Amino acid sequence: MNLRSLSARIFLFLLGVTLLPLLLLGQLGLVGGSPLLLLAVFVPLSAAAAHLLARPIRELAQVAERMRRGELGARPSFRLWPPYDEVAETLSRLAADLDAANRHFEREVSRRTAELTRKANQLRALGQVGQQVAAVLEPSELLHFVVRVVRGTFQYDVVAIVQEEGAHLILSACAVRGRGDVPLGRVFSVRQREVASLLEGMAGEGNISHTPCPLVEGVDVQTQLTAPIRMGERTIGAIVVQSRDREAFDEDDMFTVRTIAGQVAVALENARLFVAERELRSLAITEERTRIAREIHDTLAQHFMGILMHLRAMQGSKDPATAEMHRSQAEALAQEGLEEARRSVWNLRPERLERRGLAGAILDEAERISKRAGLQVDVDVSGDVDALPAAVAAGLLRIAQESLHNTLRHAKAKQARVRLTVTGGRAELEVRDDGIGFDPAAPRATTPRSGFGLNGMRERAHMLGGELIVDSAPGAGTRIVVRIPKGEVGRE
Is the same domain home to 128 and 193? Predict the structure, then answer.
């Protein structure tokens, strides 16, 4: 409706419903009076009535239009009379309800936006914490690093890690807002009433408790969140987050701390494996040093002692033939000692293995022994030998080499055979000779092969995750078998 013509429309309507019937009745002689007089009276009255009726309608329409544009506090500019005041009051109540609904909607949007922003920040921070935690490989540093990073990233008041040691919980790491170093090593008995909330959280999937355990003296906390740290089925401790605010934590915080607890468990396992690997590497170096020391003692030192004895005997001998015999023996021992020294160096750095592969290196060793000592050595290699890991290949080469040299030194054999088979992911090395044999069960002092040779080969087989079998008897030759299971053959 065009509000500007509203008065004119009402005026015409009033004039039509009042004046025209009177004029018609006057023409019929039913009403007296001049038409001009009627016009002079009713036209001004209709105009005044039209203006009076149109004004509140226009005012209400303007108020409604202002509300439509968002001005919910709009009100009429003058006091309306009944029944327009009731319409105005209804519009006012509607505007108030709309305003309240709008403010509530804005608060909800702000709250949800803040929640989503916080959750996004938590997820981003979780990724950063995970990367940082995974980079620390020292268990002693890992726990302290975690509590500092988590407290700083998520702005918690207290972040601590307790570890379970039998019937006790030990405070292993802790970071507190506004404090420097926190005294660690505090021990809590699982029978103490104060740790009940911790034990409850560690026994389940974590919990939020309003009876926090007093981890740090002088810090008044109201709420505690606990998430267990598990390795497999075993609980080794918990991450404990505490706040001075009684309503500080929600499900998002629980998700965050649980996730961090899982990351800590993985990081602790990685750190443990790193330390174990380092210790194994150190142990391997120690074992290799021990092996070299034994080999020097069992071979080179004996050769040097024999050379020295023959040289002294030669020096004190007056018979030229006897002196020549001692000289010849000393030269032979020196040559054999040189071969032993070369073999020891080769054991430390098997360059032939790198150049020729395992099969080629075994063939080279067999050919070298055959030329030097006249011992016929046959080699049979089958399967995907080149697919063996470097450590397994080096170990099998050294065991084959040691077995052949034992045969050469002790067996008085004419023939030997080396057979290497790799099939189904398993490796088997067999070295057999037709020599004099020996009794593997005999005491060490009377067993020619029970010194460093067999012990060293057995230790090397065990380091490869396999086993060494010695099958021999006096007069029946010797058979040495090394088996490496599938799991070790496929491991780099």
Answer: no
